[in-house]
Amino acid sequence: MTLRLYDTATREVRDFVPLHPGHASVYLCGATVQGIPHIGHVRSGIAFDVLRRWLQHQGLDVLFVRNVTDIDDKILRKADDAGRPWWEWAATHERAFDNAYEALGVLPPSGEPRATGFVTQMVEYMQRLIERGHAYAADGNVYFDVQSLPDYGALSGHRLDDVHQGESAGTGKRDPRDFTLWKAAKPDEPSWPTPWGHGRPGWHLECSAMATSLLGAEFDIHCGGMDLIFPHHENEIAQAHGAGDPFARYWLHNGWVTMGGEKMSKSLGNVVAIPAMLERVRAVELRYYLGSAHYRSMLEYSEGALTEAAAGYRRVESFINRVSARVGAVEAGDVPAEFGAALDDDLGVPAALAVVHNVVRQGNTALESGDGAGALAAASSVRAMMGILGVDPLDPHWLDEQTDESAATTALDVLVRAELQRRAQARADKDWATADGVRDRLAEAGIEVTDTPDGAQWSLKGTS
């Protein structure tokens, strides 16, 4: 393995060494199913789907767990506001998230535990924490004593004196900085029996119990959005270490999708829901856009950026389709060393995409010069690279999206390139009138021609 990943816990890029050779275990904090997913919600799913695909390409057997938080203050409040049972509200929006992940080509997880299915494990976890002196019960609540753990705050860099958990008030807390493991039952709210009374779990406890139940006391990688570093992931570590579990060896966090410089969230009202987005662009184009930035960077959403990314994807798709039409079937081949080096460098997708587009340019040149073997080799390499990024145009998942419009674009490309060949020959013969005539006819048809070092490239006006 030559993969190196930025570990939030150590604040450095580290060599990835699996706990068990040939295997990788990954836990991703999944959705709190309180509403319809927007593009900010699914970015982590796409970013770490690339991680999973790259690990698999490296020959590892990947056990990938993505949880569902199906009991939460927000779920209860929104269900109550809508006059619907909380479990039905959660199930409805869990299906919406599943549909979004499936539409965007995110591989289904090896396991997808729901919080409500692991209450027994949570009770056992709390018992271990109480026995080890890291938690206490009060008035039916159970709290974690943050001062009992010397390294509390190490992941986030928070000093204990500055800690604010930001949770709703319970009773019996010894220190306001302590966080809730278990909430005492309230009237008309769901609850489960425990040795300390009926109640329901705290958010942080859910993930520690689910992760260790399915992946073991120690596993390789814990993923999630950077907004989860504190308090959620800090408190997960506290619970695990307090219970005596080594827990995650690497911590990876993805950046937000922003609008106007602010994190996309329902509370800000700057939400772009997945169903609405899929009315503007194809799902594969949306995935390409959301996965094109480095996973740790912020992705500033704009219509222009989305349109540009979709056009970039279509150029790759068009190249592969042209090679299929002119030369023959394109099978996925080998990935260039430069592509592998980019992903090995903390999943450097922007650099990896630069390799993709460079090979596409080389393939186009080969295709136009009559070098069918060279074009086919380039297309095979492009398929392999795009497959690792989850956007291979010939993957069966995306073929249904190659609509009549996609087929028309491919056919148009064949015709336009024939015209561009005429123009190139005319320019070589210094027949400027013919060359200008070709360009003018294409312009009248709404086609812009740009001369580049790799030859003339075309695009429809407004999509380049």
From TrEMBL:
Keyword entries, A-Z: Aminoacyl-tRNA synthetase, ATP-binding, Cytoplasm, Ligase, Metal-binding, Nucleotide-binding, Protein biosynthesis, Zinc
Identify the domain of life.
Bacteria
Sequence positions that bind ATP: K266
Cofactor(s) of this protein: Zn(2+)
Q: Where in the cell is it found?
A: Cytoplasm
In the record, biological process GO terms are: cysteinyl-tRNA aminoacylation
Which positions are annotated as binding Zn(2+)?
A: C29, C207, H232, E236
Name where it mostly resides: cytoplasm
- The UniProt annotation puts motif 'HIGH' region at 31-41
Where is the motif named 'KMSKS' region mapped on this chain? 263-267
List residues of the Cysteinyl-tRNA synthetase class Ia DALR domain: 338-400
User: Which Gene Ontology terms cover its molecular function?
Assistant: ATP binding; cysteine-tRNA ligase activity; zinc ion binding
| Enzymatic reactions | tRNA(Cys) + L-cysteine + ATP = L-cysteinyl-tRNA(Cys) + AMP + diphosphate
Cofactor binding remark: Binds 1 zinc ion per subunit.
Q: Which GO terms describe its cellular component?
A: cytosol
User: Which EC number(s) does the record attach to this protein?
Assistant: 6.1.1.16
The record's similarity note reads: Belongs to the class-I aminoacyl-tRNA synthetase family.
Q: Which proteins does it associate with, and in what oligomeric form?
A: Monomer.
Q: Which HAMAP family match?
A: Cys_tRNA_synth
Question: What protein is this chain from?
Answer: Cysteine--tRNA ligase
Biological source species: Gordonia aquimaris
Q: Which gene encodes it?
A: cysS
